[in-house]
């Protein structure tokens, strides 16, 4: 199995197809989804906001209905316990958790907490990381040892599939599931 991690360039390609207004609408839609209308919680560092339209597009193009708190009007201006209650409820009512992991993730107070909630509330098979860096081989994002517990969303060739695809890869078992199947 040949795999590559996502790059910022990959995500910018998804975003470049969208107008600024479409990006704004995409973020607003992802923030306003109720428990009945979304199935995937997207955890991210606020420092990576510019890449979120690309991440949301990638996931939704494969069948996910994404919640992202970036434009959620219920969120207090300054994070507080109410923020934590909203985030926790959103994760608990999701079927899947995707953690957008970059070098900024290690500095986030929320990303590890959200991953911990997802780990305890969701089936571990429904938690995946989307590791992203400058180059497809860069693994600077992996400095947190516990990130090795989770499957990764990657680009590559899967046995039995002739073209490269986005997939959810379990490197410990050397198995993968098509992202479109995982998102269903």
What does this structure look like?
The chain is of the alpha/beta class. The protein has one domain: Rossmann fold (3-Layer(aba) Sandwich), CATH 3.40.50. 33% of the residues lie in helices and 22% in strands. Strands 1, 2, 3, 4, 5, 6, 7, 8 and 9 form a nine-stranded mixed beta sheet that branches.
The ordered string of helix (H) and strand (E) elements is EEHHEHEHEHEEEEH
3D shape: globular
Largest sheet: 9 strands, mixed
Total separate domains: 1
Mean pLDDT: 89
Question: Which class do the helix and strand fractions yield?
Answer: alpha/beta
Q: Which percent range describes the beta-strand content?
A: 15-25%
Distance between the amino and carboxyl termini: 23 Å
Low-confidence stretches: none
- Based on CA atoms alone, the radius of gyration comes out at 15 Å
What is the CATH topology?
A: Rossmann fold
Keywords:
single chain; 184 residues; alpha/beta; Rossmann fold; nine-stranded mixed β-sheet; 6 helices; 33% helix; globular
């Amino acid at each position: 199995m040949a795999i590559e991690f996502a790059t910022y360039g990959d995500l910018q390609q998804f975003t470049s197809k969208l107008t600024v207004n479409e990006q704004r609408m995409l973020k607003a839609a992802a923030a306003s989804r109720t428990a009945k209308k979304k199935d995937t919680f997207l955890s991210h560092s606020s420092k990576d906001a510019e890449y979120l339209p690309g991440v949301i597009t990638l996931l939704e193009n494969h069948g996910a209905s994404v919640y992202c708190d970036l434009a959620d009007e219920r969120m207090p201006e300054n994070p507080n316990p109410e923020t934590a209650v909203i985030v926790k409820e959103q994760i608990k009512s999701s079927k899947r958790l995707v953690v957008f992991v970059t070098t900024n993730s290690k500095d986030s107070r929320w990303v590890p907490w959200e991953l911990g909630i997802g780990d305890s509330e969701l089936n571990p098979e429904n938690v995946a990381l989307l590791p992203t860096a400058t180059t497809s081989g860069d693994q600077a994002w992996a400095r947190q040892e516990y990130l090795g517990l989770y499957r990764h969303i990657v680009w590559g060739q899967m046995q039995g599939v002739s073209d490269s695809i986005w997939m959810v890869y379990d490197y410990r078992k050397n198995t993968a599931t098509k992202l479109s199947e995982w998102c269903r």
